[in-house]
Amino acid sequence: MVMFLFLVVALAVVVGAVTLAVVGGGESAPLPEVAPERLQDPLPPDRPVHRADVESLRLPIAPRGYRMADVDDALGRLAAELAERDARIADLESALAGARAAAAHARLDKPGHEEQR
């Protein structure tokens, strides 16, 4: 019983000391306010994003995870560039299909061209 009472008193003393340190810290608080990190090396605004840019991108950490504004900016930029590239690929594939169809049509219209069986 004496040991239990000693543990309860020791626990109360530790909880009280921690509470006083955190609440009554004042200007010399154990966890001072720190300015949030900012994105040091953002994606390049003057050229398309390359694979190395994405691999080297390090988003700053905030107290509750990543800074939402930095993540939103980076993902928005990547989404816009991917959409632009997808549209360009679709245009090029369409042009290629048209060129192949024209070449096939020109081959069939060539005089003296007969199917050999």
In short, what is this structure?
The protein is mostly helical. 60% of the residues lie in helices and 3% in strands. Strand 1 (61-62) and strand 2 (65-66) form a beta hairpin.
Would you write up a description of this structure?
The protein is 60% helix and 3% strand. The chain has 117 residues and is mostly helical. The chain has a two-stranded antiparallel sheet with strand order 1-2. Strand 1 and strand 2 form a beta hairpin.
Poorly predicted runs are: none
Give the SSE string.
HHEEH
Portion in helices:
55-70%
Number of helices, where a helix is a run of at least 4 consecutive DSSP H or I residues? 3
Distance between the termini: 107 Å
User: How many β strands by DSSP?
Assistant: 2
Largest sheet: 2 strands, antiparallel
Averaging pLDDT over every residue, what do you get?
A: 81
Biggest sheet, spatial arrangement of strands:
1-2
Helix and strand topology:
Layout: H1 2-23, H2 51-56, E1 61-62, E2 65-66, H3 68-109
Keywords:
two-stranded antiparallel sheet, 3 helices, 117 residues, single chain, mainly alpha, rod-shaped
